[in-house]
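= Protein in question =
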Amino acid sequence: MNNTPLSPRSVLPLPHAERRVVTARTLREHGVPAATADERCRPGGPWQMPLPGVYLLHPGPPTSEERLRAVLLYASRERFPVQTGAACAASAAADDGPEAMITGPAALALYGFSAAPPLLSLEHIDVLVPRTRRLRSIGCARVVRTRSLPRPREVTGLPVAPVERALADTVGRLGRPDDAVAVRLLLTEAVREGHCEPPAVVRELSRARLLNRPHVVDAVDAVLAESRAVAESLLYGLVRSHGLPEPCWNVDLRLPGGSHLGGVDAYWPEQAVAVELDTRAIHGAFGGDGAVWSRYVRKRETLERLGISVLHITPAKLRDHPEQQAAVVRTTLLTAPEREPAASVVVLPR
């Protein structure tokens, strides 16, 4: 076995995780020729080569972080020799954007999804690359191609696909009806824990052509119901934490003669102020935004003709700007005496 010591320009000055997982190019730059690296990777040697062009500089099993870094390095152009001339210019142009990012179950595990399998239990780690890359799945690296890479998020120092894209890539591999529970758990956790907005999830599933699978559609229905429940909880919290008067919750409004005016999520009868959660964005992900918006407009016009002030609040604004939304509601309630008296309406549980 070749025990030639490393060059004085060793890989040790690199950060801890990075110095344990390096590319052939990095080794060459530190004075370690390919022959020496390959010799050290022989059975019983001190190094390993888990993926082509990627070296693990210790003999034991890789950690989760080392596996992730190995997959990213495998998918990166950095593992190839330095190019010259026109080829170098083309590579530099391509390097303007991200080369690869973790996606699928590994990405969800990095985001902290309890419904995702632990990193160490994953046989494969999905890595998202442009579809033009000449790269094949091998070992623990499973290549996922896309027409255009999304902007990655940094999680534990690693480039990771946005949650909605990681969800779609995960759900795409859960194609059996037996996977329905797993799909539902992943999608509902994404919404409940605030990892991403439901419209983004639905759009990504639609883009991946997964909405023709019955168990995925059922899971999306659960996501929409979950989103509604989360938004209602945020509205309850906004009223109580900001000291607003307690409204009538989730009621139907009707004229005394029985004509139905529509349902609202909160209503203050004395001030004739109604709040309605604006979920158009969720329905818009299914392509129905126009019809939903028309219903919103008709209901709002009808109620406002009767002197009822209607506030539309989106779930995102409730979550991200609660103080601002509370101020809007409070101002509308306080200015009620300045408006014309509202028509009498009947308030019924919805």
Remarks:
- Residues 13 and 220 are 48 Å apart (CA to CA).
- The first strand starts at residue 21 and ends at 23.
- Residues 1-15, 80-95 have pLDDT under 50 and may be disordered.
- The chain is about 40% helix and 15% strand.
